[in-house]
What we know:
- By secondary structure, the protein is an alpha/beta fold.
- The protein has helices at residues 24-35, 60-68, 72-76, 115-126, 179-183, 243-249, 251-261, 313-334, 339-371, 382-389, 396-403, and strands at residues 9-14, 17-20, 40-44, 57-58, 81-83, 85-90, 93-99, 110-112, 132-136, 139-146, 149-156, 162-166, 170-172, 189-191, 195-203, 212-218, 221-227, 231-239, 279-282, 285-287, 296-298, 304-305.
- Helix content is 32%, strand content 27%.
- Strands 7-6-16-17-18-15-19 form a seven-stranded mixed beta sheet. A five-stranded parallel beta sheet has the order 9-3-2-13-21. Strands 1-12-11-10 form a four-stranded mixed beta sheet.
- The protein is globular.
Amino acid sequence: MNAPLTEPIADFRETGCSIVGGGPGGVLLALLLARKGVEVTLLESHDDFDRDFRGDTIHPSTLEALDQIGLTEGLLRIPHGKIDSMRFHSQGRSVTVADFSRLDSRFPYIMIMPQSRFLDYLAKEAGKYPNFHLVMGANVQRLVQKDSSTCGVIYRGKDGQFHEVRAPLTIGADGRFSKVRSLAKIEPARTNPPMDILWFRLPKQSKDIHDQINFHVAGGQFAFLFDRGTEWQVGYAVLKGSFGEIKAAGIDALRGSIVRMIPWLADRADSLNDWHQVTVLSVESSRVKTWHPPGLLLIGDAAHVMSPVGGVGISYAIQDAIEAANVLTAPLLEGKVTESQLAWVQTLREPAVKTIQKFQGFVQERVVKSALTPNRPFQLPWIARFLLALPILRNIPARMIAFGTNPARIQNP
């Protein structure tokens, strides 16, 4: 429900489009609209972009889109890493499940960069346009509505006062726990992935393998290692709801499980010595039926929460932003957006979202769930082995992760 206002509105602003949420989708959409002349106000609830547990991956689809508008070269000058393959290790054998180096792209890899640096870069580029306005520390409290249509938002600013922004369109790009979605009383339909992920970091040494994401399965345990340059980001999958039992067994037991599965981590496992270093990521997959109540559009995780399988959540939010800019720039410049135009954004993006969520669901049920089953030898599903065995088909997993089924392209860049 809308939070009651206990204080007067300190100020009032009119803008061409208000965007709530300074993640990759929200910031890129603001940039794309501003460069076309739309007056846009971006509201971010935090004081900066530097916070934990944001994805650090930038997929080839995103790099190609940024290249369309001349922003890739500047991005490449920021220190970053590259992931050129994903490998699966089980029962002493290894198999490459995705080789990005074979992609027909100028960017045949997944870029690794702290998301705060990526967002700072995009926001700086957007800031070159005088019609772009960024408000940090803006905590949205309610939607402003007229005749059952959203026409703006009221937020509490860093000054503790209430501020109102009016716009022909409000974009909810504020993530999986979207306040905008909640205020609009929209409930997503959720599935029940079989696992949660324990998220922590371990030191990386110069002798270690690099430029890879490595998945390990052994004895009913499943983990992946994500190369972050000087550290390994470790994701340790557990059956959903089992963290209490794992925590009761103690941090030593968790370290022992990791070392038994990945023995070469033994020389740095002691750095994991406190549960405060471990975060539980609740795996969720969901999608709202309608992304566009009147005057409002949801994109990214606000419209469809992705499982971490493939790490595609960021790229799909960015593709939502690109299609939204393609469809809505002209109407926003005219100051009026119709419901059919908002519906067209969903029509363009929803098939790709449904496809990747089905793919993620398959991996969760047929790979992760099987890997977490104790006392049973693990092997990849036959269809995965079939795809990877045939040269003509083995690029499909890499392309699905890198681009999805229908990558968005910026119109008239």
